[in-house]
Design a protein that fits this description.
The complex is a heterodimer of chains A (304) and B (309). Chain A has 14 helices and two strands; from the N terminus they run αααααααααααααββα. By secondary structure, chain A is mainly alpha-helical. In chain A, helix 5 crosses helix 8, helix 11 runs antiparallel to helix 13 (235-247) and helix 11 (169-196) runs parallel beside helix 14 (275-296). Chain A is globular and about 85 Å long. Chain B is built from eleven helices and 14 strands. Chain B has a six-stranded mixed beta sheet, with helices on both faces. A four-stranded antiparallel beta sheet of chain B has the order 2-1-4-5. A four-stranded antiparallel beta sheet of chain B has the order 12-13-11-14, covered by helices on one side. In chain B, a hairpin with a 4-residue loop joins strand 12 (251-254) and strand 13 (259-263). In chain B, helix 3 crosses helix 4, helix 3 (93-103) runs parallel beside helix 5 and helix 4 packs across helix 5. Chain B is globular. Classes of the chains: A mainly alpha (304), B alpha/beta (309). At the A-B interface, helix 1, helix 6 and helix 7 of A face helix 2, helix 3 and helix 4 of B.
Chain lengths: 304, 309
């Protein structure tokens, strides 16, 4: 039908498969997200550390380059599980920054403009809407976390040989799973906050608050009660423990402190909460976020 | 033919409050008007038909599809224009309408093509690259209409489409609705409390009051039925004229020397009256179809329930 015909006609062409429709949302979102020069600059910055890591890996296997730079291999950071764990930690921090930029307006903007009835009056469910909005973050965060992580792992395997790959395959699994847990958590938390807080700045502040305030409280609890169980409310500690567990570097004994007893010296061993409790807490946080989204992502709210 | 909307004892309850009470009706018209005072349950009925609120009892079917079990299928052939300002921020209008078309299942290229067409159709062709935030209220209403029709739905639900529009934009909106209706490509459900708009567009009316159906009326049939009632103002020997009318088999009443009311019988046309008037040397100065206006029907419906508005 040509534009000049100016008549109402039903659409009789082919339709896209249902399963793929949630991907429409990230495609349209990226158009506006990548219009921001600040965002592009930050996104490029997020890829700087993977580049540094790839140079480090390359130097480990290039004696000529080391000779030119007058460096000994032992002075370089060893490429092992800890190396990749640090990579996941640094990229995790970058992912948090990226989430702060992209996440808060994802749902709040639609709610402010009453757009939800427009989405949900189409063959597009609430679950697809949430999945579509989540995909905006999941795809972006994947590009700076597990995808470069696995590329680095493959690069190292290529340079080191098949034996190294076979011996350290667990590292690849840890990079993939550890990154996914973190980006899923970030996406769910930012969407849940975005659905409840309509003002973008407030939503960003709430996301920072959710990350840092419980961590501060956790530290207070740990100091007062000579324990590490306070870590269960610290997102930073929880995800740190989960990553350490995945990379095989988790140690329960976190240290020993001297108790303030004037009559005799008393040392208290500090143990981190068991790994299962960290995983349980992470799943609980995800479940709460899903519940918040379920309550708030509706075409219309029924106000009592 | 399956009814467009079939309500079978539909009730909706929010908490303790019952909003819709046992609605039963079959609506088959090309353009269906949903009338009622504020808070009558018009918007709740629309939301229930769209599957936003589950019925507390009873059910409804749209083109034979049950609204809860077939919600996804129903939404594929429905276009919805919400009452409130609804749009997606920081998007040009054509981008917005295209996104809505894609969500309805159109491939990206077809969606873009139809978005342009829909915007030209509603009269926003020249402004389609502007962001929605810069639109006036009337333009936003037209953009909402464009997103409702972009995927070519079989049923278009318009919730207060002329709300807040200035007279020229209102006329444009009414003209568009009538064009879609007369194109026989889609059915239209219009919810409004503006009787004039509904009267101009609709052929079937459902009037709600306090969550119940106060009146169902087929305006088209009503109009046909009332076609026989005429009111005339004459000059000349009206008595001889009405007697001659009586001899044609029509009932008549002479309210005064100049005013005649009559019921046309089958086979008697208006031109027969003019011929008769010419024979009797009577001038017909004014001739009106006397039928109930929608306002009369609406007021009657409001009074029927508890004696007043």
């Amino acid at each position: 039908m040509a534009v000049y015909e100016h008549t109402y006609k039903q659409y009789a062409g082919e339709v896209t498969p249902r399963w793929s429709r949630f991907l429409i949302l990230p495609r349209h979102s990226y158009r506006s997200i990548f219009q921001s020069k600040f965002f592009i600059a930050y996104f490029i910055f997020c890829l700087a550390w993977p580049l540094v890591c790839s140079v480090l890996i390359y130097l480990h296997h290039n004696t000529e380059a080391l000779a030119v730079m007058e460096l000994a291999v032992r002075r370089l950071v060893p490429v092992d599980a800890e190396f990749f764990q640090n990579f996941v930690v640094y990229q995790g921090m970058a992912a948090f920054g990226l989430t702060l930029l992209v996440g808060p307006p994802l749902i709040s903007r639609d709610q402010t403009n009453n757009a939800l009835p427009l989405y949900l009056s189409r063959p597009f469910s609430r679950a697809e809407y949430v999945l579509g909005k989540m995909s905006v973050l999941l795809i972006l965060l994947s590009l700076i976390t597990w995808i470069p992580g696995l590329l680095l792992f493959l690069f190292q395997s290529y340079l080191e040989g098949w034996a190294w790959f076979a011996q350290n395959i667990r590292i690849a699994g840890a990079i993939f799973l550890g990154s996914w847990i973190w980006i899923l958590l970030l996406a769910l938390m930012s969407l849940a906050i975005s659905s409840w807080v309509k003002w973008r700045m407030a939503a960003s502040a709430a996301l920072i608050g959710v990350f840092f305030i419980p961590s501060a409280f956790a530290e207070v609890i740990n100091r007062i009660f000579y324990t590490r169980w306070g870590d269960l409310i610290s997102l930073r500690a929880l995800i740190g423990a989960a990553w350490a567990g995945l990379f095989g570097t988790f140690v329960r004994q976190a240290g020993r402190i001297r108790s303030f007893n004037p009559r005799r010296t008393l040392f208290v061993d500090l143990f981190q909460p068991p790994l299962w409790s960290a995983w349980l807490m992470l799943f609980a946080i995800c479940a709460v976020c899903l519940l918040l989204l379920y309550r708030k992502v509706r075409a219309y709210e029924v106000v009592n | 033919m399956k009814p467009v909307i079939d309500l079978n004892g539909l009730s909706v309850q929010f908490g303790e409050k019952q909003i819709l009470k046992d609605l039963t009706a079959e609506l088959r018209g090309r353009a269906i008007g949903l009338l009622g005072p504020n808070g009558a349950g018009k918007t709740t009925l629309i939301h229930t038909l769209l599957g936003f609120h589950p019925p507390s009892s009873g059910t409804a079917h749209i083109f034979g599809q049950e609204i809860m079990a077939g919600a996804e299928e129903i939404r594929a052939f429905i276009g919805y224009m919400p009452e409130r300002d609804s749009f997606i921020a920081k998007m040009s209008c054509v981008h917005f309408v295209r996104l809505m078309a894609e969500l309805s299942g159109l491939p990206s290229d077809a969606a873009l093509e139809r978005a342009h067409e829909a915007l030209f159709y509603v009269g926003l062709g020249e402004a389609r690259y502007r962001t929605l935030e810069t639109y006036s209220l009337g333009m936003k209403q037209l953009a909402k209409l464009a997103q409702a029709i972009v995927h070519g739905p079989k049923l278009i639900i318009l919730d207060e489409p002329t709300n807040g529009l200035d007279p020229p934009t209102r006329l444009r909106m009414i003209r568009l609705i009538r064009e879609i209706r007369d194109g026989h490509q889609a059915h239209i459900l219009i919810s409004s409390h503006l009787l004039r708009d509904v009267e101009e567009c609709c052929e079937e009316i459902l009037i709600l009051k306090e969550g119940r159906i106060a009146t169902y009326c087929n305006l088209e049939e009503e109009r046909k039925a009332n076609r026989k009632f005429l009111e005339m103002e004459t000059r000349g020997d009206s008595r001889a004229f009405v007697e001659a009318i009586g001899r044609m088999g029509c009932e008549y009443a002479l309210t005064n020397e100049r005013r005649v009311k009559l019921v046309l019988q089958n086979g008697v046309e208006i031109r027969d009256l003019y011929k008769l008037a010419a024979e009797q040397k009577v001038q017909i100065r004014r001739l009106n179809y006397k039928r109930d206006s929608l306002e009369d029907i609406f007021l009657k419906a409001m009074e029927n329930e508890n004696g007043g508005l």
